[in-house]
Every structure is written in C-alpha cells, then in structure tokens.
Specification:
With 475 residues, the chain is an alpha/beta fold. It is 42% helix and 14% strand. The protein is built from 17 helices and 16 strands. The strands form four sheets. It has an eight-stranded mixed β-sheet, sandwiched between helices. A four-stranded antiparallel β-sheet has the order 12-13-16-15. A two-stranded antiparallel sheet has the order 1-2. The longest helix is centred in the last third of the chain and has 27 residues. The protein is globular, with a radius of gyration of 22 Å. The chain starts with a helix and ends in a 7-residue tail after the last helix. It binds pyridoxal-5'-phosphate.
Length: 475
C-alpha cells in the first residue's frame, strides 16, 4: 500500500510528466496543497522532499518549490490529423463489437475498451444506494419512470450543469440509457438519412456507429491533439459541403483527450449558429479533468445556439448503471417522444441510486479521488509506453479522462497488432475504428484505467515487442 506522502508525490509527478508545470514553474505552496489534499503539512513536505531527492524539483530559499529547469523529456505528440475532405458512409465497425465482448473476459488484459476497471469505480457506494432505493422507494422502483425521467435526478443534473456555467432547468433534461442513447437521440432529432455530419478526426467509434445506423455520412475534420477540432478546417468544410450537424467532444475527447480552449468553444458555437447548424456536444468526460476547475460547456456559452448536450455517469460512477442524459434545447419535445418510442423509459432503480449519490455528496467525493487516480494512471501508462516502445512513437498528453492515443512507427498495422495482441490475451483499440475512412492504421488507443500490476506491465512489454517485431515467437 502506498503511504499518503507517496500518493501526494505521485500525483505531483503525474502533473509534472504531463506538462501541467513547465520547467521553472512554482509548485503549489505547502499550506495550499495541504488544504487542497486534506493532508498534514508534514505529509506535503515529505512528498516534496521525495521529488527533490528524485531530482525533479528544487526548493528555493523561502520561496517554495520549483520544477527543475531540466526535467524529464515529454514524449512527442501526434500532429494535427489530416483526414480526407469528403463525406463518407461509415464502415468496418464490426471490430468494435469484438472489443466490447473481450471487455467481459477476465482472462484478457483490458487496454482496449474505455471501460474503467472496478477499482476506479465507487462500487460500495453504488451497492448501498441501490439497496436503499429498493428499500425506501418500493413503489417507484416497480413503476415506469417515463421520459423525461426521474425529477430528483434531473434536478441534481441541472444543478451540476448550472454550476459548470450552463443554465438549464430540470425540465430541459431527458434521462437516457447512457450517453450513447443521448447521442443517437440527438442525431435522430436533427438529421435525416443521407445527411452529412461533421465530426472530429479521430472520433469516438460509438458516434460513428450511430451515424452508420441512421444512414448518415461522416465528414472528418482535422483535429489537434490538445485543442480539438480545427475551426478553420470546419469553416472551410461548411462552405464546401451540405453539413446538417456537427458532433464534437469538446472536453477530453476520445481518443485524443483534447480539450478545446474557451475561446474555441465560443467560436465553434457562433460559427455553427451562423450557418444554422446544430451542435451535438458530448461531454461524457467533462467531470474528469486532472487540474483546476471543471472545463466549460459549449451549451453554456450560447443561450441562443442550437446545442444538444449529452452526458452520462458511465466514466465516473459506472457504465453498467446506464444513466445518461440529454439537454436537447429546442428539440425537447421531439427527443422525449423518440425516447419513449424507442424504449419507453430508462430503468427506475439506477435513476434513484444515482440521484441519491449526487444528493448525498458521494459523487463529488468520488470525483475528487478518481480524477487523481486517472491522472496517475495516464502518467504511468504514458511513461511506460515511452520507455518501452520504439523510436518514432508519439503519445497524446490528455489533461483529463483516461485514454491515450499512441502513434506507432508508420509500418505498424494496428489491426494486425490488435489480433496478435488478442491472441496473447491483451485487448487494445486499433486506430481505424476511430475513423469513417479507416485512417489511423498505425495508431492505437490504450485505456489507462486498468488494474496496474505486474500483468499490465508485462502486457505493455509484450505489445512493445509486437510493435518492434523483435523475437515475437519468444513471447
Ligand atoms: C466520447 C464518448 N461518448 C459516449 C460514450 C458512451 O457512453 P455511455 O456508456 O454512457 O453510453 C463513450 C464511451 O466510451 C465515449 O467515450
């Protein structure tokens, strides 16, 4: 078990490795950090001494601790993507199902699906909340909770959105079966078959599947690994193609982990509004930023824009609860009706449980802890990949969430790599599933929210051997 000071030191180190602090930057003061982390001053000082011993930081006389000028080199990042500038139907998504199925197999090391290991989830608190829901809400539990969904849950969600700078009323929220259903309802509400949807490139394969399922076409827009979708490229695409919707994950996108700066978000909303095009905003990772405050919400930046906001508790509480929501703005009635037609209602029991976890403060407490856990997990995984993988490997530097996007040397075929890895009991997500054009042949996405033990490290070294194609038969 890690001691408290080691935990604090590891978290600081994670921030340093991901470039939160630049060489020469002052680190948080001892008292500030002790308050923030709710640990004693002695613990913080021991943590700082530990990092000083490791040569990462230096104490400057009476001025505090600073990041040393010569700190560890960061892994190079992938460049802004350059997808083909043409709308296409989506294909080749069958692979995703295999990855989903593998995520249930306990004998497989899970680096593929973006599903957090149970050790990152508040399973005990969920168990208690479900037991209490069953005991205290017997009548409700047995009944349908028709759209828009449980009022107590919608109130809590609206409160959180308001606190994040997005003023919505509980009646403007519809509870869904996860964010996936929210995305599907959003695109159903604003498109018809054959329409073109602009998406980030690479993008979440679940979104591509919805586009496929609704008979739409995807237009992949160049995307920067840290600042997200290129607004210049989107503007040109809007002139050139009959785009009917734009779907973006502004905060800690999947797989890049990009987070759009506030001014980009505002410009995105304005640009789309000026073309009368709705924005589908997927904010499923928004609560999982590693540092400072919660990033802003596009919908909150424009009270008049046509933004359909989608979220869920799958990455924070548990994906199996299947609780998500949509704030569809002017499409409220249509979305409520479509949700009703599709599956009548979201199950009542998990709605009650999530409402009580939000009301009781367990959600917020869990977030504080898990954000640090994810930061550490990303840092560990990135550091290990950088140490083991061959020259030419590039890694994203997400500031939130728990996936990294890894560019491998050009001659690596990630679809073959995924097959070879699976034959050795390791699941990874190959690059082409994140593209309608099946680009990113030499990229993989790795989920860092796995159980970090000898087996995980061995899996990474096996992957490194497969990537370098050194003595593959020996593993
Ligand atoms: C960006 C993004 N949106 C939506 C989803 C789907 O979330 P849910 O499990 O809540 O349906 C995921 C899950 O991986 C995701 O990464």
């Amino acid at each position: 078990m890690e001691t408290l000071y080691q935990q604090v030191a590891d978290e600081l180190k994670a921030g340093i490795e991901r470039g939160v602090y630049q060489p020469g930057d002052k680190l948080p003061g001892v008292r500030t950090l002790s308050k923030q982390r709710n640990v004693s001053i002695a613990t913080v000082i021991t943590a700082y001494r530990h990092l000083e011993d490791a040569g990462l930081i230096e104490a400057r006389n009476r001025s505090g601790y600073y990041l040393r000028e010569k700190s560890q080199p960061l892994a190079p990042e992938p460049l802004t993507s350059r997808p083909p500038n043409k709308p296409v139907p989506v294909n080749g998504q069958a692979l995703v199902l295999n990855m989903g199925k593998a995520s249930h197999d306990p004998s497989v090391i899970q680096l593929g699906a973006a599903v957090p290991d149970a050790s990152f989830l508040p399973v005990r608190a969920i168990e208690r909340a479900i037991t209490q829901a069953a005991r205290f809400h017997r009548d409700n539990v047995a009944a349908y909770e028709f759209p828009p969904g449980l009022p107590a849950l919608r109130r809590q969600i609206a409160r959180r959105m308001v606190e994040a700078g997005c003023p919505v009323h509980p009646d403007e929220i519809v509870i869904t079966n996860g964010c996936q259903e929210a995305l599907s309802l959003a695109l159903r509400a604003v498109t018809k078959p054959g329409d073109v949807v602009a998406v980030e490139s690479p993008t979440f394969y679940g979104l591509l599947q919805v586009i496929d399922n609704l008979g739409l076409k995807a237009l992949e827009i160049p995307t920067h690994p840290r600042t997200g979708i290129s607004l210049e490229a989107l503007e040109l695409a809007l002139e050139q193609w009959p785009i009917k919707a734009c779907a973006v994950t502004p905060n800690f996108s999947n797989p890049l982990g990009s987070c759009m700066p506030d001014d980009h978000k505002a410009r995105l909303v304005e640009l789309l509004a000026s073309h009368n095009i709705p924005l589908v905003e997927d904010d499923v990772y928004g609560d999982l930023g590693f540092s400072t405050g919660r990033p802003s919400i596009c919908k909150g930046l424009s009270p008049t824009g046509d933004v359909l906001y989608c979220g869920s508790f799958s990455k924070t509480l548990a994906p199996g609860l299947r609780i998500g929501w949509i704030a569809p703005g002017r499409h409220q009635q249509q979305v409520e009706y479509m949700k009703y037609v599709l599956n009548l209602a979201t199950p009542t029991m998990p709605q009650l449980a999530v409402a009580s976890l939000l009301e009781g403060g367990q959600y917020e407490r869990h977030l504080r802890k898990v954000k640090n856990d994810y930061a550490l997990a990303v840092s560990r995984m990135s550091g290990t990949v950088m140490a083991l993988f061959p020259e030419g490997t590039r890694i994203t530097r997400p500031e939130g969430g728990f996936v990294i996007w890894v560019e491998l040397p050009k001659d690596v075929n990630s679809l073959e790599l995924a097959q070879q890895a699976m034959a050795r009991g390791i699941s990874i997500a190959p690059g082409p599933i994140f593209s309608a054009n099946r680009k990113y042949q030499n990229f993989v996405r790795l989920s860092c929210a796995c159980r970090w033990d000898e087996t995980a490290m061995k899996a990474l070294s096996t992957l490194a051997v497969l990537v370098t194609r050194k003595d593959v038969n020996s593993i």
